[in-house]
Amino acid sequence: MTDATVAGGPGLLERLAAGPVICAEGYLFEIERRGYLSAGAYVPEAVLEHPDTVARLHRDFLHAGSDVMLAFTYYAHREKLRLIGKEDALEEINRTALRLAREAALEGDALVAGNVCNSNVFIDGDPESARMVRAMFDEQVGWAVDEGVDFIVAETISFVSEALLALEAIKAAGMPAVINLAVHREPITRDGLSMAEAAKRLEDGGADVVGLNCTRGPATMLPLLGPMRDAVSCHVAALPVAYRTTEEQPSFQSLEDPGCACLPDGRPFPVALDPFTVNRYEIEEFARAAHALGVNYLGVCCGAGPHHIRAVAEALGRRPPASRYSPDMSTHAFYGTSDKVPSAYKDFSKNL
Ligand SMILES: [Zn+2]
Q1: Beta-ladder partners of 113
Q2: Which end of the chain has fewer CB atoms < 10 Å from its terminal CB, N or C?
Q3: pTM reported for the whole predicted model
Q4: Confidence band, pLDDT 50/70/90 cuts, at residue 192
């Protein structure tokens, strides 16, 4: 297995052995918010239609401290492209996304990761669906290897049996594998396994990193991490969505917003989650707590902005380039502590 970057620097496993690795995610949500991609099918056509926007977001995440440029190939798989009638564009989207990630990574000594995800056509126990899904993983992994990635992430998968298909495809290509599961309202996989059992099976299958991404916010993902960490000796990953999920509403799809009567579908997911967004301090707290548990592949998924990624980096004691602009309230017009702030204004702060 290869574990050096194309440029000859330390690869994923070497970096993880030395300390935590940060991976910014959430490209779909952020590019949708910026107005270059439509919510719904969520196919990353922006890769072809607005490559500069995708490249910009890679660079913003790099600036904020991400160690990994994850190719924006989430949902760029055969089933999704078939669904929107654009199968012809499948390979071009994948290769372009991989090149955009690679170009950005080279600007900042970051790793480049290929990305495969939930197929949405996997049926547990159906060999025909397994064969089809494996073929989908194989073709995406093939393009990723071709375009020179350092490792491959399989993510947002709810069945361990489907995740194992992705893992086999990645291992067959000789690449380090990060396998992240998405856990819904019940804290089990869709094939009924506990988090500990799921992690163990993935480690036994050869995964280098096992963990969770998407679906759950920091508050409801954190309690699931300890049992996974205890069950395996490989590295563990955690990339929550940037939303305030709760015990009663543990996934971002299950969040309800009774304070708003204007939601067209009656629920905030996916494009009206703004009032639930976690702030940078909450992400910082999560990153610190997860790292203390022994989780060393850290990031943020849907809803993430660069400020969240900087918070992860700072929680780990780093100062990425964006930290130059971290808050400094000392000279704020009202709340500032500097002698230069007039006391009449400081006194007025309680009236603001
Ligand atoms: Zn997500």
Answers
A1: 70, 151
A2: C
A3: 0.96
A4: very high
